[in-house]
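Let's do one together. I've listed all components of the complex below, 488 residues spread over two lines.
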Amino acid sequence: MSQHIASIYDRDLEGVQARIMKMGGLVEQAIQDSSKALETRDEELAEKVRQSDIAIDELEEMIHEETARIIALRAPTAGDLRVVLSIMKISSNLERIGDYAKNMAKRTSVLLQMTQITGAHSALRRMAREVESMLQDSLDAFIQRDPVLAQDVINRDRDVDQMYNALFREFLTFMMEDPRNITACMHLHFMAKNTERMGDHVTSIAEQVIYLVTGDTPDEERLKGDKTSVDPSIAPPAPSHGGK
Amino acid sequence: MSQHIASIYDRDLEGVQARIMKMGGLVEQAIQDSSKALETRDEELAEKVRQSDIAIDELEEMIHEETARIIALRAPTAGDLRVVLSIMKISSNLERIGDYAKNMAKRTSVLLQMTQITGAHSALRRMAREVESMLQDSLDAFIQRDPVLAQDVINRDRDVDQMYNALFREFLTFMMEDPRNITACMHLHFMAKNTERMGDHVTSIAEQVIYLVTGDTPDEERLKGDKTSVDPSIAPPAPSHGGK
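Okay, and this is what the predicted structure of the assembly comes out as:
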């Protein structure tokens, strides 16, 4: 690339990276707000999350168009192309996380009309906080091209999976104890699973960073932490047959 | 593009399109097998689904590399670039659908050890069949660049969402009736939700086709059919407090 074209390319790339960071900021806020809305019973905040998803989707579309334009006009090769394609993938991950936050916010109003499940709301919020901090770090790792920080994010996803497993068991127990808890627990379980999936998408972003810097794809079958699909022991401690 | 470069480009594109169709075939099979394994209590078939996900993931990686190589070497512009980027997106969707099928297969062995929920397995299989046929049509629509067929797929996703809503209500009722059903219903509900999400990814593929042909992105907020997040009436008919 000539000096001149290279500098236009750099400017384009900086522009689209700035947009990714803006999108990341909105998604972080959405994760935080969606779990806070549930814990503080704040329907207005839930509505704010639903609204912000529109802006997130628009940013993804813009980033997609800009990266396509960069590829078409600048024809970046090898390393440069890898950066552009990573940005495209990261924006898809961010969009999905935003969708999960929106789905959680949609459920909030329904849940607020039901039996309260003690402790579940704050447990969900702790889980969401961990995912949010992982997202922050994965985007920092991207900007700084820091594979060590990215690997740290990947490792922390196991904690999120463990929090999810604990909540799953808890919900089963609550439902067994009193069938009146069933509907609320089904909705809460959705939210827990959504949060766990957000963690998976954050992990994908961190994996992109590692691929970008080292050229290696981390092994996909990293110790997956959601044990509920394979562990038959995940059933409540004592099936109290007749409800409460 | 010169005649010579154009024909190399066409050959490259045909190669990667052929790979997408191969990947699509494997994913269709995985959808079918994962629900069949549950209905026919076939653990070997479930294992086959888990194995085939490895091949699906490898194909996605290959397609990603090939499309990146095409972009880098041929520098396609405008319409051609749109095709290449669509292929990249479609392969991501297929990979996610394959993941959902694998997750369902993982749950099969656990479920086979639990109380049978009458009718649920065949209802799930009907849902999976509809998603599989939608996937077939969306890939046909892609190859034939047929936006009418693609729109038809998008419309049919509403049926899948309705099947999911019906199952969700059914699971709630089963759990209320007898707490011994709770654990099995939680797992079955996962599978129903996974199938519904597969439908969403198939819809994304169909939307890609429409974008590719017409340049328009169909409105994302198409009448979403999963009503369980917003409809407070989705609770079982009569909470029979004390279990059965």
